[in-house]
Design goal:
elongated, single chain, mainly alpha
């Protein structure tokens, strides 16, 4: 009997795994909108509000997700996958999870640093400043890192809980 609350997407995943899969699906277009608004519309205050909201929602989601993984685990739900640790074959689930975690950890750190630096170095209300070039460079890196986190997370989800 699987531990934890079953998911709602019709897979072997838990409720929180399904929430995170959909949260990442929602996050990317909102992130792109936020970048568009600041880059092409100069809507600095709205960009700030969106980023702080995304960061807060993602933080709460990840904390709840991590608690679920620590309490309920996930491996027992992935055992039915042909890509999970079958004797004599490559454990693709673990490989993709390792790649995903590299992106996820660096994305979390980068995003936290970019937000913290923005709060410390930009004026209030937000406007271009000496910090802008650094913020653009590392914000873009954080956005790409989040994209890679989402893609590798979805691949992991499919390999472990759908296949």
């Amino acid at each position: 009997m699987p531990h934890g609350i079953d998911g709602f997407l019709g897979t072997r995943a838990t409720f929180m795994l399904d929430v995170v899969v959909l949260a990442m699906l929602a996050l990317l277009p909102v992130l792109a909108l936020s970048i568009y608004l600041v880059k092409y519309r100069n809507q600095y205050a709205l960009h700030k509000k969106i980023q702080l909201t995304l960061g807060s929602v993602l933080l709460v989601t990840v904390v709840l997700f991590e608690l679920d993984m620590r309490v309920n685990g996930w491996r027992h739900r992935a055992e039915a996958s042909p890509y999970f640790g079958q004797e004599g074959s490559i454990d693709w689930v673990s490989i993709v999870l390792g790649v995903h975690l590299c992106f996820a950890v660096t994305a979390a750190v980068l995003w936290a640093v970019v937000i913290a630096q923005a709060l410390l170095r930009f004026p209030n209300p937000p406007a271009p400043a000496e910090h802008s070039a650094w913020h653009r460079r590392f914000g873009k890196l954080a956005a790409y890192d989040l994209l890679c986190t989402a893609i590798t997370g979805w691949i992991f989800y499919w390999l472990a809980f759908v296949a």
